[in-house]
From TrEMBL:
Protein name: XPP2 aminopeptidase
Positions of the Creatinase N-terminal domain: 30-162
Alphabetical keyword list: Aminopeptidase, Hydrolase, Metal-binding, Protease
Organism in which the protein naturally occurs: Columbina picui
Gene for this chain: Xpnpep2
Gene Ontology molecular function, alphabetical: aminopeptidase activity; metal ion binding
Length: 367
């Protein structure tokens, strides 16, 4: 194996001049533009996470702010940019990938701890500096962790609702999703949306703290509750939305209902088009951030859902068996690699009834 120091597929920032592989992204202009926006807002450090405003596991290209800014396309990471430094924190799955994709504007921090990010910020930003972020991209728990990491340091954690990466990304940023929101057939659900809403309200009544409203920001929660689906995110049949469910009303806000049809939005509550989102509940009214009766209910599968799950696994098993037979025939001929294998098994699965595509990019084989 090549020694790490002579590898040509990763960057070498200590060489003179620095060596960058063809897979690295030139981020000089992007960083310069971001730093200009930071100065305009009086910001000394800006934190960019890898998630979207709904803490989704998979995100749309439009929300891939970390990837656009750094060149790094792994699914987990955090970037911090100051006036003269830039660093990325990610876990060991992605260290080699980061060294292939980032240019020498970036330091790679081989950890994900918020305490580590806080220490780096305190070293890079003088006392009195403002540390900013987009509050829509951070959970209350993560916000509290950053507050704790910087507590007593003389630096201020300052949320700015204008996302500075979006501002400098400008019209190069991919457009919002435009696919239709559609209703899932009753044959697949086992419960109507009315039954689900009634069940959630009963859980709210029986909860020890008797909440009168629940705000749903997880996209799969709204999709499950109303038996609706969409295609706003690759591999995930959801649509961008927030739902505020009280014991007497339902309000559902989505960025894109103003632009597309919604087949099956029959409840008597409000559907808010345009770019409206329910304002976050006042802190003193927030009972807890971890309680979601919808996630609890969604996790318990009814008889119809169990039947559908088993049937889906049988159909998938047929496709995998067909794939294994194909591999037995093709591999000895040297006519298959991981990519063509992935394409073939995707095709076999697509041929099965009710297939809507894979649930993540297919990992077909190794070697």
């Amino acid at each position: 194996p090549q020694a790490a120091s002579t590898r040509t597929d990763v960057r070498n920032c200590s060489a003179d001049p620095p060596y960058l592989p063809s897979t690295a992204t030139n981020t000089t202009a992007r960083l310069a533009a971001l730093r200009g926006a930071m100065r305009a807002h009086g910001v000394h450090a800006y934190i960019v996470p890898s998630t979207d405003a709904h803490m989704s596991e998979y995100i749309a290209e439009r929300d891939s702010r970390l990837g656009w800014l750094t060149g790094f396309t792994g699914s987990a990471g955090t970037a911090v940019v100051t006036h003269d430094k830039a660093a990325l924190w990610t876990d060991s799955r992605y260290w080699t990938q980061a060294e292939r994709q980032m240019d020498c504007n970036w330091e790679l921090q081989r950890t994900t701890w918020i305490t580590s990010i806080g220490l780096w910020i305190m070293e890079a930003v003088p006392v009195g500096g403002n540390i900013s972020l987009d509050p829509f991209l951070f959970s209350i728990d993560t916000w509290n962790s950053y507050s704790q990491a910087l507590h007593g340091s003389g630096r201020t954690l300052l949320p700015i609702e204008t996302n500075l990466v979006d501002q400098v990304w400008g019209d190069q940023r991919p457009p919002p999703a435009s696919g239709e929101i559609y209703s899932l057939p009753a044959a697949f659900t086992g419960s109507s949306w009315q039954e689900k809403v009634a069940g959630i309200r009963l859980q709210m009544e029986q909860h020890v703290r008797r909440p009168t409203a629940v705000l749903l920001s997880g996209l799969e929660e709204t999709a499950w509750l109303f038996n609706l689906r969409g295609d706003d995110i690759p591999y995930t049949p959801v649509f961008y939305s927030y739902t505020l469910l009280t014991n007497a009303s339902i309000s559902c806000a989505t960025e894109t209902w103003g632009y597309r049809g919604c087949h099956g939005c029959p409840w008597g509550g409000d559907a808010v088009p345009g770019h409206a989102t329910p304002s976050l509940p006042l802190q003193e009214k927030l009972l807890e951030e971890s309680y979601s009766p919808v996630m609890l209910a969604k996790a318990v599968k009814n008889a119809k859902e169990q039947e559908m799950l088993r049937a889906a696994h049988v159909r998938d098993a047929v496709a995998v068996i067909q794939y294994l037979l194909w591999l037995e025939k093709m591999v000895p001929q040297g006519q298959v690699d991981e990519f063509s294998g992935a394409q073939h098994v995707d095709m076999l699965r697509q041929a099965q009834e009710h297939s809507c595509g894979p649930s993540f990019q297919t990992i077909s084989a190794s070697g």
